[in-house]
Write a structure and sequence with these properties.
single chain; MetI-like fold; 12 helices; 0% strand; flat; Inner membrane ABC transporter permease protein ycjO; MetI-like_sf
Length: 282
């Protein structure tokens, strides 16, 4: 028995070692860079001290939190609604499923550029409709009052199928006999949803929301394609701030400090996911 166990470990070990190298080496290098290890001046926490004083970092952190909370909330509402609809039996359901998944197949940057054109002040489709209705064009992407909301709505549409697919899988795993028993007892649809669907779906909801929050925390392409983080840094999140400092200002130490903070935020989000997964396995 022990030989079989060691044989299993031996087969798995190369993949685990490779995964540790791929994930661990960049993480260690980022931490070392954030501490300026290897620089002539020696190790320093100056990068982290600078974060506290940097108004742009604070604004980007706040944007990240607002963006993630709003987008994940909209993803849940849209995803649950569409999943409930697609879980019903009707003709052409497969076609509606394909259409529902289409937004998620769109690459981030391409989606950002498309929405940038749609919300363009002069020639965008949204403002053309507003003008036809007798309204005044709105600077959706160039005004701080509207830009973050516009990006949130665009990403809510593009990314909701991810949550929808997870919830749809959860809905299809609910035993049908529970619904049949409720139907025999004459239980109303709302009570069926509240007392059968929702309790059975709760673990999948937790997993979907946590994974979606992790994904949205590190979103880059959609925001970059639509606004580039502007106007000013009204739509700039932490991922864009890392990009700007590393590739535009060539300040690798400060960019690494921001990246470490972002990684810590993602780890905080990953803990409940791991706990939920382990609880389900038990």
């Amino acid at each position: 028995m022990e030989k079989r166990q060691w044989a299993g470990y031996a087969f798995v070990a190369p993949g685990v070692i490779l995964l540790i190298l791929i994930l661990g080496f960049p993480a260690v290098m980022a931490v070392l860079q954030s501490l300026s290890i290897g620089e002539a001046a020696g190790p320093s926490l100056a990068g982290y001290a600078r974060l506290v004083q940097d108004a742009e970092f604070r604004a980007s952190l706040l944007n990240t939190v607002i963006f993630v909370v709003c987008v994940v909330g909209l993803h849940f509402l849209l995803g649950l609604g569409v999943a409930l609809l697609l879980n019903q039996q009707f003709r052409g359901r497969w076609l509606f499923r394909v259409i529902a998944i289409l937004p998620w197949t769109m690459p981030d940057v391409i989606g950002g550029l498309i929405f940038r054109f749609i919300f363009d002040t002069l020639s965008g489709g949204v403002n053309l409709v507003i003008q036809l209705a007798g309204g005044t064009p709105v600077d959706w992407l160039g005004h701080p009052q509207w830009s973050l909301m516009t990006v949130i709505l665009a990403e809510a549409w593009r990314g909701y199928p991810y949550v929808m697919l997870i919830l749809l899988a959860g809905l299809q795993a609910i035993p049908r006999d529970q619904y049949e028993a409720a139907e025999i007892d004459g239980v109303g649809k709302w009570k069926v949803f509240a007392h059968i669907t929702l309790p059975n779906l709760r673990p999948m909801i937790a997993i979907a929301l946590i994974l979606d929050a992790i994904w949205e925390c590190r979103l880059f392409g959609m925001i970059y394609g639509m606004t580039g983080g502007g106007p000013g840094y009204a739509t700039q999140n932490l991922t864009l701030l890392v990009y700007k400092n590393y590739f535009q200002f060539f300040d690798s130490a400060y960019a690494s400090s921001i990246a470490v903070v972002l990684a810590a935020l993602l780890l905080v989000l990953a803990v409940p996911y791991v706990r939920t997964t382990l609880k389900e396995q038990r």
